[in-house]
Design brief:
By secondary structure, this protein is mainly alpha-helical. Helices cover about 55% and strands about 10% of the residues. β3, α2 and β4 form a beta-alpha-beta unit. Belongs to the UDP-glycosyltransferase family.
């Protein structure tokens, strides 16, 4: 895709991985929000982090969202599918990235199908025209807290739980005990059946 300029955030400083590609620009950091606001940006490729997802939604840009299914970053998969649900993105899995043609076809689809851009802009307009903006909501909650102070009825019950209850250690312990008991009983039954079988052969 020589007619397309790629701006790639790459973690390795001074990498020469794309030196032979004049249309690929690498850097360890880019002003992401400023790039998303640039009208020349057509598609944004992201792993679906919360910051990127929020900026994408507000700037109204379509995206290719990489869903890696990594438990440590469980929100990324949800964020990716949330944007795709609004019609402003396409989700690719880690396995899809093994096929360069798949990524190329996905990018070309988003370049040529204006519905992705239109849906992304529509989501941005919806966020900008909410009945109560995020700023107003924050101010009203602060005013409410200043007026009424700390209210026990709004205090999360989780704050009153013990360490064992909060981390479900009692439940985990019960499950472990059940598993150990099942294994123990199964082992005893197996030993018993084996001894009976051996005894029968001897007889």
């Amino acid at each position: 895709m020589p007619d397309t300029t790629f701006i790639w955030k790459y973690e390795e400083e001074g990498s020469q991985i794309a030196d032979h590609l004049p249309n690929v620009h690498l850097s360890t950091w880019f002003p992401q929000n400023a790039l998303l606001a640039d009208p020349r940006l057509t598609v944004f490729v992201t792993h679906g982090g919360l910051g990127s997802t929020t900026e994408l939604a507000h700037q109204g840009k379509p995206a290719v969202l990489l869903s890696f299914h990594i438990p440590i970053f469980a929100d990324q998969q949800r964020n990716a599918h949330m944007l795709a649900k609004h019609g402003g993105g396409i989700v690719l899995t880690k396995d899809d990235l093994e096929n360069p043609q798949k990524l190329r076809e996905t990018l070309l689809t988003m370049f040529n199908d204006v519905s992705y851009s239109q849906n992304a802009k529509r989501l941005s307009e919806m966020l900008l025209n909410q009945p109560i903006s995020a700023k107003q909501l924050l101010i009203r909650h602060c005013e409410f807290a200043a007026k009424f102070g700390r209210l026990p009825s709004l205090d999360p019950y989780g704050r009153q739980l013990s360490f064992m209850q909060y981390f479900l250690l009692d439940v985990i312990l019960a499950i472990i005990i059940v598993i150990v008991m099942v294994i123990y009983v199964s082992f005893r039954l197996f030993r018993r059946c084996s001894s009976i079988a051996v005894k029968s052969k001897k007889d």
